[in-house]
Amino acid sequence: MTVVANDDNVSSHNVINRGDPYPPYPYSWYAVGFAKELKPGRILTRRFLDDEIVIFQTESGVLAAVEPYCPHLGAHIGRRGRVEKETVVCPFHEFKFAASGQCVSTPCGEPPRGASLTTLPVRVHLGMIMVYHGPAGQSPAFDLDLPESDPDWHPIATRRLHFNTHPQEVNENGLDHQHFATIHKFTNFVIPKPMEIDGARLYTEYGGTKPVPIIGGVPFHFTSVLIGLGFSLVELTIARLWMVRQMVLATPVAPRKSDIYIGVAARRRFRNRVLRALMSPIERLTGWLYLQIVTYEVTRDQLIWDDKIYYEHPKLIPADGPIGKYRRWVRQFYPPKSRDGQR
Fold this sequence. Notes:
Layout: E1 3-4, E2 28-34, E3 43-48, E4 51-57, E5 62-66, E6 82-84, E7 87-89, E8 96-98, E9 103-105, E10 119-120, E11 122-125, E12 128-133, E13 157-163, H1 167-172, H2 177-182, E14 187-198, E15 201-212, E16 216-227, E17 231-238, E18 242-254, E19 257-266, H3 273-305, H4 323-329
Parallel strand pairs: 1-5
Antiparallel strand pairs: 2-12, 3-4, 4-5, 5-10, 6-7, 7-8, 8-9, 11-12, 13-19, 14-15, 15-16, 16-17, 17-18, 18-19
Family: Belongs to the cholesterol 7-desaturase family.
Keywords: 2Fe-2S, Iron, Iron-sulfur, Lipid degradation, Lipid metabolism, Membrane, Metal-binding, Oxidoreductase, Steroid metabolism, Transmembrane, Transmembrane helix
Domain Rieske: 29-131
């Protein structure tokens, strides 16, 4: 189990570009990596909002996410820094910082008063490293409440992409029923029950038939939960036989630019140990193959996202789906002073 450092010293980026239809960085949990990239002593540097963050794990397994610059003279901790036992060490003057962000030692005496790295709340959920962005000094407004991993599912197959889009646009796709036919070529699209909202969670269920070369039409059934604007979990049944779980998570790294973290896993179908062992390679191959499909389908969306603009008051038709309700729901993830501009 991953141990997480405390979240007391949190940061926030409240940059709002006045020309944008919405602020570039909604308050949410965002993916910054995959759990399989973690191991004690390793440092990851990732783009996050308008800068970078550093993620590291101490020798005992404590996980921390910090803003990258040493408070001493500004060196980048993620560039040539190192983990030493329970601390991360600045590459410039070798100040040492605990996972809490606090400077605990220097080569030349006591640490300066108030010397600390700014930390961000960080968790591992279903194989994804998630970091929270919110108002400075405040705890996360909501939690994902998901396990680190799930023994009923295989480890996720992963991919990371970069698109010119915003998390709100990426997640709106799941509510845009029309695009499943026009972009992804689904037929017989059905909605067994309407969208449901519970605080920071939005639930949907839908299905349809997807043409597959050689095989023909294959039925798909999707159930999904969107938690904030940074975490989307979709579980789907393919041809009433295979169960696959997918996450397509958009992390903003600049205005209208996002890193897309994709994770796909197949469900373990059997309890019997012998059958599990026999079927495991086939199930994992199914997950890997579906990752290729998801990647292809998302890049189909990218062709639209890269060139589209955002209308606050689109001219919708009933067949579009609950886009208006979705846009009202997302207001809670923006700074209060920006919400009046949201529709």
